Amino acid sequence: MKFTLGWLKDHLDTDAGIDDLVHGLIGGGLEVESLTDRRQTLAPFSIAHVRATRRHPNAERLQVCDVETEAGLVQVVCGAANARAGIKAVFAPIGTHIPGTGLNLKKVNIRGVESNGMLCSEREIELSNEHDGIIELADDSPVGTPAAVALGLDDPVFDIAITPNRPDALGVHGIARDLAAKGLGTLKPPTIPKIAAARTSQLNVALETPQACPLFIAWPVCRVKNRPSPVWLQNWLRAVGLRPISALVDITNYMTLTYGRPLHVFDADRLAGETLTVRSAHRGETLDALDGHNYTLKSGMTVIADASGAVGLGGIIGGETSACGPQTVNVVLEVALFDPVRTARTGRLLNIQSDARYRFERGVDPHFAEPAAQIAVNMIVELCGGEPCAPIIAGQPPNISRHYTLRKGRVCELTGLDLPSKREQDILQSLGFEVNETASGLDCVAPSWRPDIHGEADLVEEICRIVGLDAVPSTPIPRVSAVARPVLTLSQRRVRQARQALAARGLDEAVAWSFAPARAAELFGGGEPQLKLINPISAERSDMRPSILATLMAEVRRNMARGLEEVGLFEIGPVYKGDRPEDQTLHASGVRRGMTAPRHWAGDRRGVDAFDAKADALAVLEACGAPVDALQTTAKAPEWFHPGRSGTLCLGPKIPLARFGEIHPRILAELDVNGPLAGFEVMIDSLPQTRAQGKARPPLELCDLMAIKRDFAFILEQSVESGQVVKAARAADRQLISAVSVFDLFEGAQAAAIFGPCKKSLAIEVTLQPRERTLREEDIEAVSRRIIAKVEKATGGKLRC
Amino acid sequence: MCTSSADIKKLGQEILQNITDAASELEIEAIRVRALGKKGLISGQLRGLGHMGPEERRVTGRLLNETKGRIAEAIVERRNALKMAALNDRLAGEHVDVTLPARPRSRGTIHPISRVYDEVIEIFADMGFSVAEGPHIEDDFHNFTALNIPPEHPARQEHDTFYFKVREDGSRMVLRTHTSPVQVRVMQTREPPFRVIAPGRVFRCDSDQTHTPMFHQIEGLVIEDGIHLGHLKWVLESFCESFFGIEGIKMRFRPSYFPFTEPSMEVDIGCRFDDNRIRMGEGDDWLETAGAGMVHPNVLEACGLDSYRHQGFAFGMGLDRLAMLKYAISDLRAFFTADLRWLHHYGFSAFDTPTLAQGLS
Fold first, then answer.
1. Which chain B residue's Cα is nearest to A579?
2. Contact A341/B121, CB-based, under 8 Å?
3. How large is the average pLDDT for residues B39-56?
4. What value does the mean pLDDT of chain A take?
5. Which residues, 6 or more positions from B36, have their beta carbon under 8 angstroms from its beta carbon?
6. What's the rounded Cα separation, in Å, for the pair A738 and A321?
7. A414: nearest CB among B136, B157, B228
8. Helix A610-623 to helix A490-504 angle, to the nearest 10 degrees?
9. pLDDT for A692
10. Which secondary structure element, helix H or strand E, spans residue B252, and what is its range?
């Protein structure tokens, strides 16, 4: 919402300076987005008189002008066709910054002729895009007059943002009311002229849809002359970015901007029949609107129609066929009330943004229709002459009367502001509330222009914003406990610990989109219809991701496209299995792509594989306090993993906690990512909801007797898992055997050549920890025999001798 | 067998000279055996003492023992010297180029969003707030209606909501457009008093230089007897002071409008815009950082709280924006691109946990 200082002062009697007004607007909740003072921005530009011009000796299109400026006669080279002797123009001396070109003027020599300044076009001083010639001014502008003054642009322009609850501030008068309430002047009440009807009219108004349009005033005025508006009105409109058109059109814009009251003027001679009907549009009915577009309407949209059909879209835009022009003689002024919800819906469906729609959908003062009509008719008569007829008033304003009690002390309870009741009363009255003091507090009737007032809290807000938030005392909240207590839930702690563990393992944390392309979602087990967005931002972000891997894969690809070959990323975030709250779960997932280390003189690097991912998954589980030693690894994993190089870490046979492995080559190919690439997914929400251990650690049992290590190698079928061997060996003596580890694996063609087809050798190291006495050779022999027997029985393998 | 003192001295001299001349530990050992071994020269002389008279034995014995001591000492000394020389020789061949780079250590990073998340929680935890969470796929009630945004409210249009397919029953789910639905869920399930913050992802159908379809907000909610707007101001002032680490940070509270609060305000922080960089805590410009207000009675009622008995405040801030302001990160879109170069530049070490004691930045 833009307005000028002069416009405001037409409604506010004030001595306040601009800074105070800006402060008052902001302090009252009307955010000032900008303040443009052209007296300052155009300060170097002034009026000059072009005394004489002659053709440039070396350039056909250029003229050399003798220009009389406030600093005396100067020579200027000018390319404008309209530069000629006798005109007044806007002159910029050397050193001026030209806003339209961004250049600083210098004394220049143009093809052998010196030029000492510039005569400006509208574009060069950012008045408009007009650049066909230089600005010409009325003859009576004295040389040296500041350009802003001569152009009628010396009125500072405010641009303020209006929150959707404040339709009353969509007019200068309402803004003035707020400032007056803030103590920055006195509101000048509008003068409502009495209109004497010179004649009657045959016009009728029929309201078919009173819910959509409860009130419609049609006011015919005959024999007008639609001339240009007076300079003051043109200047105001121009200052706020509107193009003056003609008095009739400018008056409607003036009423919209001054009183937040959109209205419309029909050319009565271009209306068919004697009846204006407000009705729902017929399906397929069309309207040639004033914006130059043809709209096809739908049932439920409110139109104003004459005998020929729709001539206006209620509360949104007028029709071209009945628009006023220079030839207009007889007019009908429309001042109506349109339902906000329907207006908004129609505007949205047709995608029409207009000043009228903007105000009607926020709520126009229903009781101001008739006064507005009187002001507008009076203005028409003043500016265009003519004879007003008696108005035709159909319907009536709806009853919107509401009153609420502001309890004593309530303002203080909600805001901490301790104000005398009289002050509260004064503020509300200055905003237009009718206030009666009762035993319980203040009984307040909301003014008709405040559709946003719906309860006591709104009254508190009104007082609070007028007093100002600076006055609200900053008050410490009581401390809950001397030392702050821990607040994170188990799950929230796990997220932090998992994050630190993964970053410590060298992975970079990413925050990827919750969205994935449909195909990626399908490849990772998603793609359900209820997880597809109706209005995605792009095909790349069409589905809610079923797996973090579905989104990280794309990030790996993009990093590789940047030339980064070794990529290690993780994310701890949501995945979506359905649209219910419980379908959203938390995963800690990551990928490693490329080699385990960068190229280095000390060598030692290899391609990443499933065991890197397994280590990552285990690190997360351990950091989260999962019972890592009790986990089982199974060779099964979802289909997006390589079927032979992936697995799942389970707690018992039923509860999978994590999966890991190489990503399926088919998926790599489809998503255009080159391997090697391994990934893991830890289902944080599946972890046991209690921590594996309490605060207290179990007692440490140290044994003075030295542990003994023995190695065993077995020749096994290729299909035997190392887990079976370890498990069998452990079972040989649960007391004595404290650890079993795999330290060698020999498989492949060479192994097959030695041990037979499909055979491998697996070597384990068993640690024996005696508890009571040192082991004798025969004890060790005995347990060794049991280990060999157990493993051979469990695996069908043979000890390698 | 020579027994004269002169002979013994001469023998001693010879052996000591041999020791000095020895070129290896092996030679030293041979000398030791020859001189001090069981059948060695000195040992032989000592055995001969038994045949002497008491006076001669005393004199010769002392001389022999002195000689033996000197030889033993010389052997140890020479052996050590030879060992040292051998070691020096070996070390001379073991030279490495120490200017070679150290072995690579993979350094992971923590995303600025997570960092700021933790910083914010650290501050609010100290003020007694716990952390609440809610689903991203929300129903109309939690995202709009309960927050006093009825179906035709203009604010709904401004939210750029992502929608899912209309279900058979006519309802349709949305992606939450703000973290405020978590307020609703907290009020529906907990008994006041409470103080909670709810950080998390939010979604708007908007994408340009400064908007991404997904970003992060943090919501705050306090429902407590006697809690008023002044408390809200204090909480936000205290937060900003601590988060940005600027004592007496300049702040401005402006009345504004949100459907879910009444009275409502917007919160600006004083700053200076300088060559596309924002400098916090200086200058005369203002930067909008939060929306806040007293919880609207309609919201309390919609969540099952009696608005005559309960009151409180709520606020919301952009987490990404907080991160950008504090750490001078200019492009919001880069937060979500996982560009390793960006992550390495703006990310944080795994071991740099923000705590109030150590400082938050």
1. B137
2. no
3. 83
4. 94
5. B42, B43, B68, B71, B72, B75
6. 96
7. B228
8. 140
9. 52
10. strand B251-258
Question: What is the rounded average pLDDT of the residues B233-255?
Answer: 95
- The answer to whether residue A567 neighbours chain B at the CB level (below 8 Å) is yes
Q: Could you say which residues from 466 to 505 on chain A have a Cβ atom under 8 Å away from some Cβ of chain B?
A: 469-470, 472-477, 479-481, 484-489, 492, 496, 499-505
A567 conformational bin, left if phi > 0, alpha if psi -120 to 50, beta if neither = beta
Instruction: Report the alpha-carbon distance of residue A536 to residue A543 in Å, rounded.
Output: 8
CA-based nearest distance A759→chain B, Å: 37
Residue B4 has pLDDT above 80, yes or no: no
Per-residue pLDDT tens digits for A624-636:
999 998 899 999 9
Is residue B127 within 8 Å of A477, Cβ to Cβ?
Answer: yes
- Predicted local distance difference test score (pLDDT) of residue A693: 59
Mind spelling out the 3-state secondary structure of A132-186? CCCCCECCCCCCCCEHHHHCCCCCCEEEEECCCCCHHHCCHHHHHHHHHHCCCCE
Does residue A676 have a cis peptide bond before it, meaning omega lies within 30 degrees of 0? yes
B251 has a chain A CB within 8 A of its CB: no
Answer whether residue A575 shows pLDDT above 90.
yes
Distance CA A654, CA A671 (A): 32
**Count of CB pairs separated by less than 8 Å, A with B:** 256
Q: Report yes or no: A658 and A614 within 8 Å, Cβ to Cβ.
A: no
Q: Which of A461, A595, A605 has the most B C-beta neighbours within 10 Å, making it the best mutation to test the interface with B?
A: A461
User: Is the predicted pLDDT of residue A293 greater than 80, yes or no?
Assistant: yes
Residue B322 to chain A, least CA–CA distance (Å): 16
CA distance B40 to chain A (A): 44
| Residues A340, A358: Cα–Cα separation, whole Å | 9
Element (H, E) at A413: helix A410-415
B-chain residues within 8 Å CB-CB of A411? none
pLDDT tops 70 at residue A563: yes
Give me the residues paired with residue A310 across strands: A305
Segment A759-801, tens digit of pLDDT: 999 999 999 999 889 999 999 999 999 999 999 999 999 999 8
Share of chain B above pLDDT 70, in %: 99
- Measured between beta carbons, the chain B residues lying within 8 angstroms of A487 are 121, 125, 129-131
Q: Which two tokens stand for residue A540?
A: 């790349």
A98 contacts: CB under 8 Å, gap ≥ 6: A92, A104, A105, A118, A120, A124, A125
- Kindly list the strands in the beta sheet with A403-407, ordered across the sheet, starting from the edge strand earlier in the chain: A403-407, A441-445, A434-437
Residue of A nearest to B211 (CA): A537
Beta carbons of B109 and A509 less than 8 Å apart? yes
Most confidently predicted of B1-15, B75-89, B156-170:
B75-89
Q: Among A502, A624, A657, which Cα is nearest to A648's?
A: A657
Task: State ipTM.
Answer: 0.88
Does the pLDDT at position B2 exceed 70?
no
CB atoms near residue A5 (< 10 Å): 19
- Reported as a single tens digit per residue, the pLDDT across A713-763 is 999 999 999 999 999 999 999 999 999 999 999 999 999 999 999 999 999
* Helical packing angle, B54-93 and B25-36, nearest 10°: 170
Q: Is A424 on the interface with B (CB under 8 A)?
A: no
- Residue A626's φ and ψ, nearest 5 degrees, are -75, 150
pLDDT at B1 over 60: no
Residue from the list B105, B109, B296 with its beta carbon closest to the beta carbon of A508:
B109
**Pairing relation of β-strands A508-509 and A567-576?**
parallel
CA dihedral A5, A11, A14, A16 (to 10 degrees): -40
pLDDT tens-digit map of A337-388? 999 999 999 999 999 999 999 999 999 999 999 999 999 999 999 999 999 9
Q: What confidence score (pLDDT) does residue A801 get?
A: 81
